[in-house]
Design goal:
Protein name: LacI family transcriptional regulator
Number of domains: 3
Distance between the termini: 82 Å
CATH class of the largest domain: Alpha Beta
Strand content: 5-15%
Oligomer: single chain
GO molecular function: DNA-binding transcription factor activity; transcription cis-regulatory region binding
Keywords: DNA-binding, Transcription, Transcription regulation
Radius of gyration: 25 Å
CATH topology of the largest domain: Rossmann fold
Structural class: alpha/beta
Number of strands: 12
InterPro entries: HTH_LacI, Lambda_DNA-bd_dom_sf, Peripla_BP/Lac1_sug-bd_dom, Peripla_BP_I
């Protein structure tokens, strides 16, 4: 015998209210009293009611689904951002579809097509390192689907963005190295296609300028974030005469990989080479020596981006604003850069 599927009619009978009131309560309609909404939601959970999303989408012209596209899940940064975003989406009654591009432009384009075919109500995006053409993302705008960028943003598109103060945080990281007596500071930078790479590089340059330390092109290497290449670049930097006495890395995975190479070369950290990363990824505090890095409010990035997106979904397009939210990142000083020289 087939089990009875609980419907809004069953909930309406149990609470002695109309099925239209139940429907409005389940879809978050503002004209339903808070006590009525709570009673409906509590009973729906007790009776194991499963929302018919197809029917709801036909009624409301919404899928109650939000897409999230990220470049990778290899580090702890993007999973933590997604956790924050999902929390906000769940509060508003939205499901989430998550795709990762594996740092590949073609995969990112395919991900965007999946989101469109799934008829998402909005999308959060952090671009791959290869992305230089944005037509696949502009398609969301043309179709009236709200889009919010976070972390890796597209400057060409006038849409909301959530970032951290990359320039200022990088400046403070390099300033810390200078103030602990280091003057020949190398920088392993990210690809120029990413705004975060450019901002962190500019923070590095501005810190050198403030303290009248001459810039040397030999000490800056921009690379595509492929960690297997770090060994080549570090060996090159350490072969310079004189060699760098400090390294500022574009992110923690780069810094940690550099530390392994430097230690295998017989050099001491921080006595011979001090190192600062960016991100405070999982493992940064456990590596030996522990890594000085910039800590980002990762879950807050996700919550802020999702809040902006939900606000757009619930407004007419004419009310959308291309705001940029810049969150504070903080320098966490650990053993990889402790003072070992005369400070300035």
């Amino acid at each position: 015998m087939k089990n009875h599927q609980i419907t809004i009619i069953d909930i309406a009978k149990e609470l002695n209210i109309s099925k239209s009131t139940v429907s409005r309560a389940l879809t978050g309609h503002p004209n339903v009293k808070s006590e009525t909404r709570k009673a409906v939601l509590d009973l729906a959970e007790k009776m194991d009611y499963q929302r018919n999303m197809l029917s709801i989408s036909l009624i409301t012209n919404k899928s109650y689904t939000i897409g999230i596209i990220v470049p990778e899940f290899m580090t702890s940064f993007f999973p933590q951002v997604v956790v924050g975003a999902q929390e906000e989406a769940a509060k508003a009654g939205y499901n989430v579809i998550i795709n990762q591009s594996n740092e590949n432009y073609k995969t990112e384009v395919a991900n965007s097509k999946v989101m469109l075919s799934s008829q998402v109500d909005g999308v959060l995006v952090s671009m791959s390192k290869e992305t230089r053409n944005y037509d696949h993302l502009k398609k969301f705008q043309r179709k009236g689907i709200p889009i919010v960028f976070f972390n890796r943003v597209c400057d060409e598109m006038m849409v909301p963005k959530v970032v951290v103060n990359d320039h200022d945080a990088a400046f403070r990281a390099v300033e810390h190295l200078i103030q602990t007596g280091h003057k020949r500071i190398a920088h392993l930078a990210g690809p120029d296609s990413l705004a975060i790479s450019r901002k962190r590089l500019n923070g590095y340059l501005d810190a050198l300028k403030k303290y009248d330390i001459p810039f040397s092109e030999d000490l800056v290497i921009q690379y595509d974030l492929t960690l297997s290449k770090v060994k080549i670049y570090i060996k090159h930097l350490m072969s310079l005469d004189p060699r760098p006495d400090a390294l500022f890395a574009v992110n923690d995975p780069t810094a940690i990989e550099a530390m392994q190479v430097i230690k295998k070369m017989g050099l001491r950290i921080p006595e011979d080479v001090a190192i600062v990363g960016f991100g405070d990824n999982y493992g940064s505090s456990f590596i030996e020596p522990s890594l000085t890095t910039v800590s980002q409010p990762v879950q807050e990035i996700g919550r802020t981006a999702m809040t902006l997106l939900l606000g757009m979904i619930n407004k007419d397009m004419s009310q959308w604003k291309a705001v940029t939210k810049s969150l504070e990142a903080k320098l966490i000083i650990r053993n990889s850069s402790k003072a070992n020289k005369k400070t300035l």
